[in-house]
Amino acid sequence: MSLKLIVLVAILLTILPTIHAFTSRTSLSLRPRQVASSTSNERPRSYKAYYFEQLIDHFPDSDRYAPHTNATFSQKFFFDDTYYKPGGPVFLYIGGETSAESRWSNLQTGIIQILMNATNGLGVILENRYYGTSYPYNASTTDELRFLTNEQTIADNAYFAQNIQFPNITGGQDLTASATPWILYGGSLAGAETAFSLVEYEGLLWGGIASSAVIHATHGYPEWYNPIQKFGPQDCIWRINKIIDKMDQLVEENNEPAIQKLKELFGLGALEDIRDFAYTIAFPIGGPDSYPTNTWQELNWVPAYDAPDFFQFCNNVTDDSAPTDITDVDRALSEYTHGEPWTGLGGYAKYVKDVVVSQCPSEDLINTSACFSTQNASNWAEPKNSGGRSYTYSSCTESGAYQVANYPNKPSLISRVIQLDYTQQWCNWAFPPGPLAPQAAPSPNGPNLKRYNKYGGLEISARRLAFIDGESDVWRDVCFHSHNATERYGPNQMLITGAGHHWDSYGILNVDAEPDFIKAAHQWEIRRVETWLKEWELEDRRKVTTIN
Ligand SMILES: *[C@@H]1O[C@H](CO)[C@@H](O)[C@H](O)[C@H]1NC(C)=O
Ligand SMILES: *[C@@H]1O[C@H](CO)[C@@H](O)[C@H](O)[C@H]1NC(C)=O
Ligand SMILES: *[C@@H]1O[C@H](CO)[C@@H](O)[C@H](O)[C@H]1NC(C)=O
Ligand SMILES: *[C@@H]1O[C@H](CO)[C@@H](O)[C@H](O)[C@H]1NC(C)=O
Ligand SMILES: *[C@@H]1O[C@H](CO)[C@@H](O)[C@H](O)[C@H]1NC(C)=O
Ligand SMILES: *[C@@H]1O[C@H](CO)[C@@H](O)[C@H](O)[C@H]1NC(C)=O
Ligand SMILES: *[C@@H]1O[C@H](CO)[C@@H](O)[C@H](O)[C@H]1NC(C)=O
Ligand SMILES: *[C@@H]1O[C@H](CO)[C@@H](O)[C@H](O)[C@H]1NC(C)=O
């Protein structure tokens, strides 16, 4: 799929700055500038890029990474010392599945700004290997992707914390993790990497806040849709459920003429594979792996980052006062459903035509990989470096969570033709075994979940590791506060009422003016960090020089 505006969904595409990273808007604001010293609320508008010589292969003895290499790559990082005072901690913001630039807002106005201000800390963003410009190789064949694993990524964090020399910071001569408390923060995949880092490098890294951390790998993830099913406007949700039921009934009956008519109502008559059709009409809700428009996941409490498309979509589905050429469509397929209308279908189809199908430059391209067909194997196999490709590789090999239709006998927001095989074929096409490292190819049976869950899965824990989640986040069920996790209570956990995906990472340079539940979350995060810094003083870590 290669529509210009595709936003990788998954864990990936969540925050608006991330979305920007995948659209043409990105290039507008990225000219690096030296960090500006700032007073009061004046914040740097951009940051100068620095590069760290990072090992490509941290595990020279592991068969998993053969053939090995001693080479390094340039890993990009940014830092903000506008609040730094000697003795302050280092906050390492984990880059995750996007460029480091698209994380700047966390230093400027978000959670790292809040924590730096509270503790005189230094804020650092480290770009994830295989994202942004931090690629070890100039292409991403399956062989070249073999070093893109979570254990290598978290080893980057540890190696960086042990060896980095920050340039030009007054009083910051040795800010490595043996002399200074390092507190990690990450949201989404980066949240999981934060948690895994704390588990694996507990003696080195002092603390961590894992936000909406997707700590649990699972093959299929129908639960992604549960918060939308539960918290979305129920008249809209119910209409979509019923439309999907009717569509699936036609598929079950193998009613080709009716299915063709249905596709045409959406302007997708040429799209051959019924799963591609189901995928395309699911975009306003959230299609598997990637989607070109904003969804529930892109809702945000900060107006500047909020993308309320989902509610506009629902307003179309429920708009009974739309012109009759739209509402009449509700009855266009009634003859196939015992005279029953498909209530809301006209508004649904019109919305998809206007907002999604209109992005395809020509009708002749509807059934190609330039627009809505995902069935072109050679297109998937293109080894060009991209964040989307890297993310898909990680999903295919380790983390899974393929979005699929709901469990049988439950209402579904996407057609039941969307099952594991649909995403799995992309994995098989995209990453065929290479000549050097055939072990790096994903298994056709699905990701190796053990490699991801070995840090503890939903039961993961470490000293000074805190978890914060959003109650109505689509990723919640693979996070600490999953409905599948054992019930736990304690000071290092927080579930924000009504919140979405790592909503605590955003800020407005005034904690007191935030909505109550966000403010409470930020105050809790400040207290967590202050508590951990007191523990550092008590344990007199400055005397420790080596880590075993
Ligand atoms: C990496 O360096 C070590 C130490 O010099 C050496 O033993 C090893 O063979 C090198 N590995 C590769 C893949 O070149
Ligand atoms: C990619 O990298 C290799 C080795 O580092 C180099 O020989 C080759 O010219 C590069 N290709 C491009 C297109 O930059
Ligand atoms: C450090 O500061 C000096 C003087 O301002 C400047 O010339 C130099 O480029 C800076 N070094 C880095 C790595 O930013
Ligand atoms: C339908 O969606 C469009 C595009 O987002 C939006 O501009 C419009 O307001 C929506 N219609 C209704 C009735 O809300
Ligand atoms: C649609 O695209 C698929 C995948 O490229 C192809 O196999 C199929 O023949 C195409 N169908 C039509 C009607 O063009
Ligand atoms: C399939 O993908 C290849 C490689 O990206 C591209 O050249 C070709 O045009 C695509 N064909 C269709 C029908 O999408
Ligand atoms: C939650 O547990 C149920 C029952 O064991 C299981 O079927 C489901 O896949 C689990 N969900 C996730 C997201 O792991
Ligand atoms: C910084 O923290 C102080 C309290 O320590 C607070 O009064 C001030 O509003 C904060 N400023 C910003 C920009 O967050």
Automatic annotation (TrEMBL):
Pfam family, one: Peptidase_S28
GO biological process per UniProt: proteolysis
Record-given protein name: Extracelular serine carboxypeptidase
Position of the signal peptide: 1-21
Entry similarity comment: Belongs to the peptidase S28 family.
PANTHER family (UniProt xref): PROTEASE S28 PRO-X CARBOXYPEPTIDASE-RELATED, SERINE PROTEASE 16
Gene3D superfamilies: alpha/beta hydrolase
Lineage start: Eukaryota, Fungi, Dikarya, Ascomycota, Pezizomycotina
InterPro entries: AB_hydrolase_fold, Peptidase_S28
Coiled coil (UniProt feature): none
Gene Ontology MF term list: carboxypeptidase activity; dipeptidyl-peptidase activity; serine-type exopeptidase activity
UniProt entry keywords in alphabetical sequence: Carboxypeptidase, Glycoprotein, Hydrolase, Protease, Signal
